[in-house]
Amino acid sequence: MDDARNEPLSCPFCEFSDHDSYFLSQHAEVCHPEEEKSPSDRHDDSEAAIRTAEENFQRVQCRLTNEHGDRNSYIDCPHGCGESVTTAELQTHLDLHVAETLALEDSGKFDDRIHRANCENSDFRGSFEIEQCLSDAQHLAASHDHDPVLKVKSSETGRRREIRETATHTGGSIKRLGRAELGPYAHEKQMPAWLRKLLQNGAKVTRLNKIGPNGSILRDEIVENETSQVIPVLMQLCQQDSSVQRAFFCSPKVRHIFKLPREGGFCGYRNIQMLISHIKEAQRPGHEHFPGRVPSILELQDLIERAWDMGYNSTGRIETGGIKGTRKYIGTPEAQALFLSLGIRCEASAFSRTESMRAHDALLQAVAAYFRSGCSVDGEEKVLKTDLPPIYFQHQGHSMTIIGFEVRENGSANLLVFDPMFKTSPAIKRLIGQSVKASDPARLMKAWRRGVPYLQKYNDFELLRLCV
């Protein structure tokens, strides 16, 4: 691995440096306004960002192919975000870095060359007409086994797929998992001291006093890596996107919570935090367990270990060797164990390829059925809001939070997600609380969509749904 990748990025106008390119760009905008560029210059910068992403991917891909020949090898993100991703996922990861830094002024200013082919080449087209999709999805959901304890068929390429309770009851041996399941730090005893300190300190919190409608003073907190009220913005963008036939959203009472700079791969914990943010804000059963702010990553590790002590998915401790104080990946079994141990009912389900259906088709149909259960589809509304909780979503090596589902005019479908690996873009932040009129809503939606071209790269999926 190139040591230069771990070096901080330097401001071209002063001595400031940071490992996070987004913070560096924000520093330049705030501290060096005299260097502000014209719209044409910003256009050139955006084109350059795309070229840089492509060049980084080609350079790293070539070296990895020569050195390892394994598309499942882990590599540090050349963007400098601190994440380790597989070679197979690197292109998508770099593309989304471009999307997360999108400013409102950049929307619609240049061609989206990286993703356009993906949108046009979906092989799901034609099979996802609205009524047929929802009918099929309802049938699939009714026939799917929603066992209260996750039991998932073993798979070489999936995330953790051990039939845990069955192995215990039959006397089968419990296998210790490795890098393929637990990530590049599968065998570490403790995370570095600097990272523990970063997680202990947490994100920067800004406290504000606001004048309420009745003249009273309201105290508000802004947490650096949390964004509220994103869903109302995305709903307006879907409404204005002519390529969308219909869209469904979960309750807007959920925050987009994302990683800290240099944090690395704690996506499972961040998704648990997002579900907890919904439980708190919507006053769902169990909200009393989470007074104050959402639990930190270190606190969530304690809760998971406690759940194992109580017998919930307890073989996870043997499979992982314990997670307290480590950077080992967690997944659906750990999230499920945590919630069940607190008396918060949830259901886990898994999707793999069968003779009659591909894994991603089954996943999309199940998600469609879920959102259909929260509203009526008989009306003419293009964008439908429900009061449903968001969904914990896992595939090999990464997890996200599903906050919606959309069907396109060409018959294809997308999951709408909060991805903890990427920040809320400046463009979306500026639109919060505003009436949205976007010249290119599809571009602003890019970071929130995961369609068939993305999903078909994976063989197995898992969902964890809070019971309503």
Describe this structure as you would to a colleague.
It is a single chain. This protein is α+β, with helices and mostly antiparallel strands. It has a domain at 193-466: Cathepsin B, Chain A (Alpha-Beta Complex). It is 37% helix and 16% strand. The chain contains 17 helices and 16 strands. It has helices spanning 21-31, 39-67, 90-100, 116-120, 130-143, 164-170, 179-182, 193-201, 231-240, 267-281, 297-309, 316-320, 332-341, 359-372, 426-431, 441-445, 452-455, and strands spanning 9-10, 17-18, 74-76, 84-86, 205-211, 217-223, 226-227, 244-249, 256-257, 346-352, 383-385, 391-395, 398-408, 413-418, 449-451, 460-466. Strands 8, 10, 11, 12, 13, 14, 15 and 16 form an 8-stranded mixed β-sheet that branches. The protein has a two-stranded antiparallel ribbon with strand order 1-2. A two-stranded antiparallel sheet has the order 3-4. A hairpin with a 5-residue loop joins strand 5 (205-211) and strand 6. The longest helix has 29 residues, at 39-67. The chain is globular and about 55 Å long. Residues 1-5, 32-43, 56-69, 107-131 and 133-171 have low confidence and may be disordered.
